[in-house]
């Protein structure tokens, strides 16, 4: 009996792939559990030429996208001090003051002052130009003389001085540095906006 | 005396020999030689100024332009870089309680000069350094790609794509 049953069970298992079945008690058949296993699939061997082709296609696609993005105009970093803060624009009415009426005398005096300032500036500028001109001419003359004296030295003199550029110069400070100054404890952190 | 003048004469000949040569050239127009700068040049020279006081910095920038113009140097462009901000905290002695706090802004300006002859650079440096106002620093440097890159907002998407492409092995070589 048991042999027949097992035979039947195997039979029914075989049929599971073709139709739905029930294992209700009415049929009174016990079924071995389904084992969902199958031999491992053999890895498909792809031609290396095809792999290369696929990669090339991917790279080309990326390149195309990069080119497209590069075509867009690049954005300059915003300069904080060049933009008027929104709060000032909002408070414009509050902040504008009525200017007092100036008397003719004051207007006249200011105009004269402005003119004499302009004159002074002009003189200053001319002085600057003169100095620059003098320095440059003196340099030209010296180089010319050197050239007459010896061409080799002249050639050396006009060469780019690799020790000069790059150079960094700090301007004067309001007060001279204090000798042996013990600075207080504290922190000095750069909090400017980071761009990555 | 005679010997010295002879020597000078020879030097003079050496100096002008190339001039006479170039006037003799038949196949090339003369002005091509004349257009070449007489001294070795810095192709680009960036004059960068930094300062904490905006008004003074702007005025100094004007002065640098003026000097460069007077020296007949070619000014290509001038630009501003975003300011650097520093937070400075002073602690009370023997503790980490903040006594005072300051925020300082360091503004940047750059003026780019083109084709600066080597002998003009020390002159320009002396003239600009002599007029350097309080708290402003000046630096000369040749222009680099990095300076150019620093002016723009970096495009993250583009950079990522470039990185990915590099990982894949660089751009595809064109067939010839």
From TrEMBL, chain A:
Q: Give the source's domain of life in one word.
A: Eukaryota
User: Which Gene3D superfamilies does the record match to this protein?
Assistant: 6.10.250.3440
Q: Which residues form a coiled coil?
A: 52-79
Sorted keywords for this record are:
Coiled coil, Mitochondrion, Ribonucleoprotein, Ribosomal protein, Transit peptide
Instruction: From the Swiss-Prot or TrEMBL record, state where the protein is found.
Output: Mitochondrion
- InterPro entries, alphabetically? Ribosomal_mL40, Ribosomal_mL40_metazoa/plant
Q: Which GO terms describe its cellular component?
A: mitochondrial large ribosomal subunit
| Signal peptide per UniProt | none
The similarity annotation says: Belongs to the mitochondrion-specific ribosomal protein mL40 family.
PANTHER family per record: 39S RIBOSOMAL PROTEIN L40, MITOCHONDRIAL, LARGE RIBOSOMAL SUBUNIT PROTEIN ML40
Instruction: Write the protein's name.
Output: Large ribosomal subunit protein mL40
Lineage, opening ranks:
Eukaryota, Metazoa, Ecdysozoa, Arthropoda, Hexapoda
UniProtKB/TrEMBL annotation, chain B:
Xref: SUPFAM superfamilies: Ribosomal protein S10 (SSF54999)
Name any GO cellular component annotation.
Answer: ribonucleoprotein complex
Q: Which residues form the Small ribosomal subunit protein uS10 domain?
A: 46-141
Q: Which UniProt keywords apply?
A: Ribonucleoprotein, Ribosomal protein
Q: Name one Pfam family in it.
A: Ribosomal_S10
Q: Does the keyword Iron apply?
A: no
| Region annotation Disordered: where it falls in the sequence | 142-176
Q: Does the keyword Ribonucleoprotein apply?
A: yes
Residue ranges annotated as compositionally biased, kind Basic and acidic residues, are: 150-166
State the name under which the record lists this protein: 39S ribosomal protein L48, mitochondrial
